[in-house]
Amino acid sequence: MNPTIQLVNKTLAQELKHPSFGPGDNISVSYKISEGNKERIQEFRGDVIQVNGQGVTKTFTVRKLSNGVGVERVFPLFSPFVDEIVVNKVGRVRRAKLYYQRERTGKASRISEKKRVVATV
User: Fold this and answer.
1) Coil vs helix vs strand at 43
2) Residue 46: which of 25, 67, 30 has the closest Cα?
3) 8-to-53, 63, 85 alpha-carbon distances in Å
4) Residue 14: per-residue pLDDT
5) 4 by DSSP, 3-state: which?
6) SS3 for 98?
7) How do strand 38-52 and strand 59-66 relate by DSSP bridges?
8) Which is it for strands 26-35 and 82-89: parallel, antiparallel or unpaired?
9) Whole-angstrom Cα distance, residue 43 to residue 25?
């Protein structure tokens, strides 16, 4: 990869400071919506089913169930409209792309949570 592109990617990553997340994680994405001359922030909470691309062109897809209907939204990671990303749960999955979640509903669509080891002193 070109050294100039690597430098731009590194500075963008340091500038935005989003938390690291991957497929299976449950996240909340706050993004800016402009309606006319007004601007507001809306939150989209769901499971990450894929992360695509690298560097500046990196995107991720978040899926949620809204009134029994699956809704997916693709967000560019380095978009100026993405205000904040919060990781709610870290999921345990064995695939990079979770397209099989599209056929599942209810309890079958749950993703098990990764167990965290807490050190006691």
Assistant:
1) strand
2) 25
3) 15, 30, 21
4) 60
5) helix
6) coil
7) antiparallel
8) antiparallel
9) 16
> Which SS3 state, helix, strand or coil, does residue 28 take?
strand
| Cα separations in angstroms, 41 against 10, 15, 35, 46, 71 | 27, 20, 11, 17, 19
Contact call for residues 37 and 23 (beta carbons, < 8 A): no
Q: If we measure between CA atoms, which residue out of 56, 108, 102 comes closest to residue 77? A: 56
pLDDT digit string (tens) for the chain, length 121 residues: 678 877 776 776 666 678 889 999 999 999 999 988 999 999 999 999 999 998 888 999 999 998 888 999 999 998 889 999 999 999 999 999 999 999 988 888 888 888 877 777 6
